[in-house]
User: What shape does this take?
Amino acid sequence: MTNQAGANVTDAAKLTQKKCHKVTFAVPMEIPSQYAPRQVEQRWYQTWLKHKAFASTPDHRPAYTIVIPPPNVTGVLHMGHMLNNTIQDVLVRRARMRGFNACWVPGTDHASIATEAKVVQKLRAEGVKKSDLSRDAFLEHAWEWTHKHGGIILEQLKELGASCDWDRTAFTMDEVRSDSVYQVFADLHAKGHIYRGLRMVHWDPEAKTSLSDEEVIHKDINATLYYVKYEVVENPGTYLTVATSRPETIMGDVAVAINPKDVRYNALHGMHVRVPIGGREVPIILDDYVTTDFGTGCLKVTPAHDWNDYAIGQKHGLEVLDVLNEDGTLSAHGLKYAGMERFAARTKVAEDLKASGHLAKTEEYASTVGTSERTGAVVEPRLSLQWWVRMPELAKPALDAVMSDEIQLIPEKFKNTYRHWMENVKDWCISRQLWWGHRIPAYFYGPGEHDYVVALSAEEALEKARAASGRADLTAADLQQDPDCLDTWFSSWLWPLSVFDGIRNPENPEIQYYYPTQDLVTAPEILFFWVARMAMAGYEYAGKRPFERVYLTGIVRDKLGRKMSKSLGNSPDPIQLMDTYGADGVRMGMLLTSPAGNDLPFDELLCEQGRNFTNKVWNALRLLKGWKVSDDAPADEAAEWAVTWFRALLDAELSELQRDFDRYALSEALMRLYKLTWNSFCAWYLELVKPAYGQPISVGVYRATVDFFDTLMAALHPFMPFLTEEVWHLLSERAETDFLDFATYPTSGGTAYDPTTFAIMEEHVVALRTFRAEKNIAFKSPLTADAATKPAAWPAIAKLTNTQWGDAEGGLPLRAGTFELRVQVAAEDIDVEAEIAKAQKEIEYYSGFKRSVEAKLSNEKFVAGAPAAVVDAERKKLADAESKIEIAQKLISQLAG
RNA sequence: GGGCGCAUAGCUCAGCUGGUUCAGAGCAUCUGCCUUACAAGCAGAGGGUCCGCGGUUCGAAUCCGUGUGCGCCCA
Assistant: This one.
C-alpha cells in the first residue's frame, strides 16, 4: 500500500528538515496519528461539569476530603499552584476510584495585605491616594477589583483538570467564613486567648501595617558598619566609639551600653556621653547583653528601633524615642532630618557625622535584614498597640499531634522543624492596619485602653457597652469600632472547619461527615503560617485534628535553581505550557521529578516527555483500533505467551504501585506506570500479540489486550485524567457518563511474578537483534537457530526476531545471557578476527571476575560468617562466569579451526 | 551563632533494618533505522573513586567519626 507520491514527499522533506514526519497514508480509521489534547480536555471537562462528576454529598461511603490551600482571590495560576493542585487531584481522583466519597473543596483567600497593596497601587496609577478615600469608598474599589479579577485562578484550575466540587467554592470573606472569623475572635477573647498589648512589632512602612513574625523574610545583605564617636561628657575631648549599622536612628539614642566585664571601658562606668547629633547627654550603662568582640564593644541603645535595644531599655527603665513615622520617614524626633526617607537620612547623617569629625571609619560586613513578605519593604521594629493571640496553650495539642503522628507530616523530616518552631512559639500579632479584611469586632466606648467590648454586631456591641460602662444612655454614635483588620491567616486557620460551616454549626451533618479531612497538600513555607495554626484551631474548635496527613511539596525552581517568581520573569506561563503539551503532559511533567518535600527543578523537557507519553498511549489505541478481530484467527503461540506473561506482570506491578502510593511516592508511582505502559505493554506486549500484516487477531487475545489497556488507563487516570478518559471511551462502547472516575481503581490479585521467564526471552531477543545489527542482516530475511534446549519462550523469541528453530549445525555460537544459541550464518557475514577478538576480551573479563569470586569463596571467614544464601549466590556467580568463558572458548576454537 | 538536612552517571533522582535488585531508573548523549500504531517513534550502545579521609566488619553507597561543599529553618 505504499504510496509512491507519499514516499517522494518524504524524501524531499528529508532534504530540508532535520526530523521529518512520516506522511501518513491508508490510516485504518479516522484517528489522527498525533494526539490533540486541548480539544479532548475541554470536551471532557465540560462533560464532567455537566454531569457533576465531582460533586459530593454525605452518604454511606467513607469520606475522603481535601480542602484546597485557597489561592489569592485575585491571583493567577503559577507553577507552584500547578504542582500543588496536580498532586491534590491525583490523590482525590484515586480516592474516588477506590470507593471513597471524595470531596475536594475549592476556594479563594482574600489575601488582605497583598490585595490591598494591589488596589492601592491601581488607585495610585489613577491618581487617587488611599488617604483621600473613606474606608467605605476604598472597600468599594477593593470589591470591584476582587470581582473583576476574582476567580480567574479557579477557571485555570479547571484547565488543569482539577476535580473539585465547584458547588462548594468558598471565599474567606464570604458570609459563612466571615461570621466564623468574628465568632472565633469573640470566643478566643472571652476565653482570654486574645488580648491587646503595647509591644514591639514588625512594621511594614510601605503597607503601613504591622506584620506577624512569619511574614518577615530575612535576607542576607552587605551592610555598612559606621564607627561613630561620642564625646564623654565628664571628660571633654575624649571619645567613645560605637559601631552601628543605623546612624539615622542616632537621634533616638537614650544610652550607650558596655559589657560590665569589658575591662577596656572600666574608667567610663557611671559617666555620660553626648549624642553627636542634637547633643543630648545620655548615660553609659552596663549590660551583659553587649558582646565585647563585635564592633568596638560599645552599643548605642535605641529602644524604639531595635528589638534588643528595646529589651535593654525596658530593663534599665529608659525612655523610648521614636524617630520614625509610620511610612518610614523621619519624625520630629529626627530633628533636622525630619521628613526625610530613612535610607536617604542614613546617608545624610553619615555625611554630616563625617563632616563634623564624628565618623571614625566605616566597614562592610555581612548582615541580615527583615523584609516584608508581601511588599518586600525592609521592615522596622516598631512599638505599637496591637491585638495578640496567646499561643502556648493553643500550640500544645497541635505540637503533640505531630509528634505522635496523629497528624503525619510527609516527608517526616519536617517534624523536627515543626517541633522547634512550636516549642518556641511566640504570641501571634493578628491586627493589621489595613481596611481589606475582617474588621476587628471590638467597639470602643471610651478613651481608655480597655474601654471596649467585643461583639458580633453593632447592636450587641451597644448593649454590651452600656453594661460595661454602666452608662445606659450610650448610643451607637458613641461607639467606635476598631479600625484595624485581622491578619489573613486568622481566617485561613479556620478553613477546614469553616468550609463545612463547622464553626457556626458544629453539629451540622457536613462537618460531622467530612471532618477531619484526610490529606492536606501545601508548601513547607507555610507550615507555621497555616498548617500549625489549622491544627490549633482544629483542636480548639472541633476537638480533633483537621487532617490526617500533610503532604509538603517543594518549591518549583528554574534550571539555575532559582525560585520561580514574577519579578525574575523565570516562570513559564502555565496556560501556555498546557496549550503546548496538554494538561496531561504538563501534569506529568510536574510529577515526574517531585518527591515530597524536595524542590522541583522544573524543565520544560519534562512536559515534553509527558506529551510524548500521551502520544504513545494514543498510538497504542490506534494500533488496537486497526485490528480485525476474528473467531478463527490462526493460533499464535507468541501472543498466548505474551498474554500469560503480561497478566502476571501487571498484577505484580499493581501491587508495587499500591506500595508507592502508600508511601506517597507519587513520582515513583507515575514512573512505574510510565515504564509499564511504554516498555512492557507497548514495546514488548503489543509487538508480541500484533498479528502479521493483514491477518486478524483472535478474539481471546484481543479481549485480553483491551482488558490490559483498560487497566492501565484506570491506573493512570489520576495522573492523566483527560487522555485516559478519552481512550477508555474509545476502547469499548461506553455510556458518556461511564466516567473513569467512577471505575474501580485496579488492584493486585496478589499472584507471585517470576521475572526470569521474561528475562530469558528478552536476553535471547536482544542477542539476536544485536546479531542482526552487527552482521547487517535485514529483519525480513529469517534466521535459523538452535540450542541444547529450546527456551520455553521460543515462540515469542521467534516472532520478535524472525528466527526459525532448526538445525544450526556449524552455526556461530551466540551467548544470550547465560544461555547459548547457535545461529546459522553465511560465511561471508562473519568477520573472523573481530569475533575472536571479542571473545578473547570476554574471556579476559570473566576470568578476572572469576578470580575475585574465588578469592571470596576461599576466605574461610566469609564462608563461615555470611548467610548460606549469600554464599550460594557467590557459587552461582562462579558457575556463570565459567560457563561464559566456556562459550567464548568454544567460539574461538570453532572460528580458528 | 543555634538547629535540621543533603552530597550516587551530563541532568533529576531510586537504592528500607550492611551481602544477586548493588552499582540502578528516567531524561539527555552516541550509532543505525521512515519496519504496514507512533520520528512526539523503533532497535542497539556508551557512561559512575557512590564528595575526601579514617574506623567498625569476613563484607560498606548503606553503620560510626571527621573534613569539605551545598541547602533550609531559627536568632
